[in-house]
Amino acid sequence: MDLPRHHTIRETSHRIIDPFTDHQLATLGRALRLDPGATVLDLACGKGELLCTWARDHQTVGTGVDLSTVFVAAARERATSLNVDVTFVQGDASSYVAHEPVDVASCVGATWIGGGVVGTLELLGRSLKPRGIALIGEPFWRAGPPNEFLSLPDLVRQLGDAGWDLVEMVLADEHSWDRYVAAQWLNIRRFLDEHPDDELAPAFREELSTGPLDYVTNQRPNLGWGVFALMRRP
Ligand SMILES: C[S@@+](CC[C@H](N)C(=O)[O-])C[C@H]1O[C@@H](n2cnc3c(N)ncnc32)[C@H](O)[C@@H]1O
Fold first, then answer.
1. What is the Cα Rg of the chain in Å?
2. Pocket residues for ligand 1 (CB within 6 Å)?
3. How far away, in angstroms, is 68 Cα from ligand 1 center?
4. Nearest atom within ligand 1 for CA of residue 93
5. Distance between CA 154 and CA 152 in Å, rounded?
6. Which tens digits make up the pLDDT trace of 131-170?
7. Domains of the chain by start residue, with CATH
8. Contact 77, 107 (CB under 8 A)
9. Which ligand 1 atom is nearest residue 92's CA?
């Protein structure tokens, strides 16, 4: 099983495959007050930027699991270039449990692997030390008509109802959303110019023609996103 090709093309230029900038990812790493040698498991780790930069900045030791062969190859290259102690496993993370309990277990931008936020917390909890920290990266709705996402208060309520203390959070903003979404447009345009006859070209052409207006109209003003740090209640 591998991630469909359209994702890896759209996210060619990204190191972080979520609406965080380098700065916000670093802020989160500092906020967690990680000790050197702390162990971090990242499920659906993408290109491994969280694990690699935290290993560089805080001397953490990481394991990442991701479905995408392309992203895992990029993650391994990044770990080599930063000379950090991070291991990547290519495969389905939806039932992955660490061999040894870890200090931090995260799933950032992929809570479908546990069937939603509560199931993903339960999955992460199986790998955590008793006072370990779970990280969940999740969208929420800031404004606009009701939709499939919870509001921020309802999301925080859900995390508490599931039996976890919210102990830190870092939230994306409209500018960091742009780095995730708008950066995809140039990736798509370049792909179209270089591969006009690719089987994905018609769908990408449609996406580039309609996506930016849809984004600024519906998503940018309304959709929030954040990473929530949680510790299980005793
Ligand atoms: C939105 S990206 C987030 C990547 C990374 N956490 C980040 O924030 O940069 C979602 C990731 O989930 C991965 N993914 C999707 N389903 C998966 C599964 N069942 N097991 C492992 N990885 C999965 C994709 O390959 C992709 O890298």
1. 18
2. 3, 16-18, 44-46, 49, 65-68, 71, 92-94, 108-110, 113
3. 8
4. 20
5. 5
6. 999 999 999 999 877 778 999 999 999 999 999 999 999 9
7. 5-177+217-232 (3.40.50.150)
8. no
9. 20
